[in-house]
Write a structure and sequence with these properties.
Layout: E1 4-7, E2 10-13, H1 14-27, H2 32-36, H3 42-49, H4 57-66, H5 78-93, H6 97-108, H7 111-114, H8 120-133, H9 139-152, H10 158-174, H11 178-191, H12 195-206, H13 211-227, H14 231-247, H15 251-267, H16 271-288, H17 291-304, H18 309-321, H19 325-336, H20 343-357, H21 362-378, H22 382-398, H23 402-416
Helix pairs in contact: 1-9, 5-6, 5-8, 8-9, 8-10, 10-11, 11-12, 12-13, 12-14, 13-14, 14-15, 14-16, 15-16, 16-17, 16-18, 17-18, 18-19, 18-20, 19-20, 20-21, 21-22, 22-23
């Protein structure tokens, strides 16, 4: 609804009133029939709540009174508050979490006032953005918020609806709910295409077996970020474009984007990005089968940062392919026990330890089938799952377990289609 209304000599947006009424009705366990009894028809309330048709001001006032909602609060300048919402979101998009936290703290200070206004829904959506992108909360932590906001999404303005589907989609992607997350991100983009949604959607596609789509969205985001002078965002686009092209085996294109990311990160002294870029380049050469270069870049990544798990994994796997097992043992001795408290890091190194030292043993079969493969599948690390299945197939064929090997082949084919 692109309408405003005047209540008590103040102008209000119909969408916010509709969302507020629907949100409060659901929280207070009112049915539509109970709320509108003696005030308006159920169909009129339904159309209003779902953003289809406006209601007259006097009807809205009666609905608010029945829900014990009062428009006469101390919220005097919603425009100023919306400016804070937008500023915080801009900080988050450009990875300025310190700036975002400062604005968020200012908003939290007036939460009590906002909670008694039609704009509380807007506050909740921007809080969800902060918790998802800055705090990195998981879906289970915010499930109740999302489920409640889902019920009133139709009442939101297109602007808020697009932002809501972006953040809830990203939240689901973070928690490996990839299909639902991608669907929400696509919905956000259909409502309103922005550079941020193109970047977020492209990155999500990159890790969801949709790399060709990922390149499309990321290339669009890259152009806009570069034209806007947002070079940190542009570097992240280059990095994930490199990952997408590497997944597609278009290695020259991948190298071009990784080199652009590396050169820019060093030039602008974005040191925090270097560990990600080194890991991505290490992945590239492993996928390409250039094991010597993979080892070279893995060591650069290992020596640069303590965020070493994938670089160590790539280093060992490249040495396995070159049959340089002594180099593998050096890494096992240094990192396997150190990473025992981190289940993912320990599991990927333990898998490679089994490959090097127990590949012909029944221990390999039992650990892969009963523990490691189910674990990697449960956390949806498709790259590691593929490596594990390929080695498991090799083991099964060596031991003439052709039926099991054939089943894994079929699974791999379906996962790459």
């Amino acid at each position: 609804m692109d309408h405003t209304t005047v209540i008590n000599e103040k102008i209000y947006d119909m969408n916010f009133l509709a969302a507020w009424i629907k949100y409060t009705r659901i929280k207070k366990h009112y049915s539509q029939e109970a709320l509108c009894h003696g005030i308006c028809s159920i169909s009129h309330l339904s159309y209003f709540e779902n953003g289809k048709k406006p209601l007259r001001p006097e009807i809205i006032q009666l609905l608010l009174q029945r829900l014990s909602l009062n428009l006469n609060n101390n919220l005097t300048n919603i425009g100023h508050i919306r400016q804070k919402f937008n500023t915080m979101t801009s900080y988050i998009e450009t990875f300025d979490h310190k700036g975002a936290k400062k604005i968020y703290d200012e908003l939290i200070a007036i939460e009590q006032i906002l909670s008694t206004s039609p704009y509380y829904i807007e506050f909740q959506i921007y809080t969800l953005i902060y918790n998802t992108f800055v705090i990195n909360d998981k879906y289970d932590d915010l499930r109740n918020n999302v489920e409640m906001l889902d019920k009133i999404a139709d009442s939101l303005s297109n602007e808020l609806k697009s932002i809501y589907f972006l953040v809830s989609g990203k939240l689901m992607i973070n928690t490996e709910l990839n299909e639902q997350g991608l669907e929400r991100l696509q919905t956000s983009r259909k409502i309103k295409e922005t550079t941020w949604i193109n970047y977020t959607l492209g990155r999500a596609c990159c890790f969801s077996n949709s790399s060709s789509k990922g390149t499309y969205y990321l290339e669009k985001a890259l152009v806009n970020y570069e034209n806007s002078g947002l070079y940190l965002n542009a570097i992240w686009c280059h990095n994930y474009l490199g990952v997408c092209y590497s997944n597609l085996k278009l290695y020259k294109s991948a190298e071009k984007h990784f080199n652009a990311a590396l050169t820019s990160a060093k030039h602008f002294q974005f040191d925090d990005l270097l560990s990600h870029i080194y890991t991505s380049i290490s992945d590239l050469y492993l996928n390409k089968g250039d094991y010597e270069k993979c080892i070279e870049w893995s060591l650069i990544g290992i020596n640069y940062t303590c965020r070493h798990n994938i670089c160590v994994y790539n280093y060992i796997l490249a040495n396995i392919n070159l049959k340089q097992y002594d180099s593998c043992d050096i890494m096992f001795e240094k990192y396997l026990n150190e990473d025992i408290q981190n289940k993912f890091s320990y599991s990927i190194l333990y898998f490679l330890y089994l490959v090097v030292h127990h590949f012909d043993d029944e221990l390999f079969y039992n650990e892969i089938k009963n523990n490691l493969l189910p674990y990697f599948e449960s956390i949806k690390r498709l790259d590691i799952v593929r490596d594990v299945k390929l080695k498991f197939i090799e083991y099964l064929e060596n031991h003439r377990k052709y039926k099991e090997a054939n089943q894994l082949y079929k699974e791999l084919l379906s996962e790459t289609m």
